[in-house]
Design goal:
Elements (H helix, E strand, L loop, with lengths): L19 H6 L3 E8 L1 H4 L7 H12 L4 E8 L5 H6 L1 H5 L6 E5 L2 H5 L9 H18 L3 E5 L13 H14 L5 E3 L1 H10 L5 H4 L12 H32 L4
Parallel strand pairs: 1-2, 1-3, 3-4, 4-5
Helix pairs in contact: 3-11, 7-8
Length: 245
């Protein structure tokens, strides 16, 4: 047996809930809206995860017509993103919403006036409520990246608190793509260096490299496929137990 940890592929933590709406929409046309900051919008010429994820999902579900709408704006955090929901998310009538949050609240300097943990979590809570009331979409929250910029002595405790808060907010059918845990696994299990995981052109050591962005997008694809399978299994089980009229 090969015990070399660098050869153990890290996979994402499975979604807790099935992606019911998205699974149903795969029978025809389906739309995904990705909203967030630079991890969503893209940074430094590196193709961002939404475009990569789209390619992976199109290959996985070739009979579906899948569209991806990228609504990322670099530097934003949940309060400002929430203000864009009506025009950038709700109006698109999505079947799946991926909301990447939390990083800028932890990382940004005080002179950049980042929102506090309470302000960020309040906006996430309001955003999730709005999505549940005004769309039929499945929702995925994506938490922070595991990179040096948020792991310094001054930031790490805040980063862990934000990851925990995002997890606690994801109730009532909302899934979390646990990017922080996944990338920590890349570091600790696969023993991938931060030099490989972080964009070499980023002096802040914040943004994912091309390689890491690819792995994150692939992991998101695996998690989504698992969520679709879970929804389909649940629907099949329900149909078997339904009384015949």
């Amino acid at each position: 047996m090969d015990s070399d940890p660098s050869r153990i592929p890290v996979e994402p933590i499975p979604f807790e809930y099935g992606l019911t709406r998205f699974a149903q929409s795969l029978r025809g046309r389906t739309k995904i809206v990705a909203i967030g900051s630079s991890s969503t919008a893209g940074h430094g010429g590196i193709q961002p995860y939404p475009e990569r994820l789209l390619s992976f999902l199109q290959a996985q579900y070739p009979n579906a017509e899948i569209a991806m709408v990228n609504r990322g704006i670099g530097g934003q955090e949940a309060p400002l993103e929430f203000q864009r929901f009506d025009t950038d998310v709700i109006a698109e009538k999505p079947d799946l919403v991926i909301w990447q949050v939390g990083t800028n609240s932890v990382w940004q300097r005080p002179d950049q006036n980042p929102p506090s943990l309470d302000e960020t979590t309040s906006a996430i809570r309001e955003g999730l409520l709005k999505l549940s009331q005004e769309t039929k979409a499945d929702v995925i929250l994506m938490d922070l990246q595991y990179v040096p910029a948020v792991l310094t002595p001054a930031k790490k405790e805040k980063a862990i608190a934000m990851v925990k808060a995002i997890s606690e907010l994801a109730r009532d059918g909302v899934n979390v793509f646990r990017r922080f845990a996944f990338m920590k696994g890349l570091s600790e299990v696969e023993q991938v260096s931060f030099d490989r995981m972080v964009d070499p052109a980023d002096e802040h050591r914040l943004h994912d490299s091309d390689w890491a962005t690819h792995r994150v997008a692939w992991a998101m694809k695996l998690a989504i496929v698992g969520g679709v399978d879970k929804a389909r299994s649940s629907a099949a089980a329900s149909s078997r137990t339904s009384p015949v009229s």
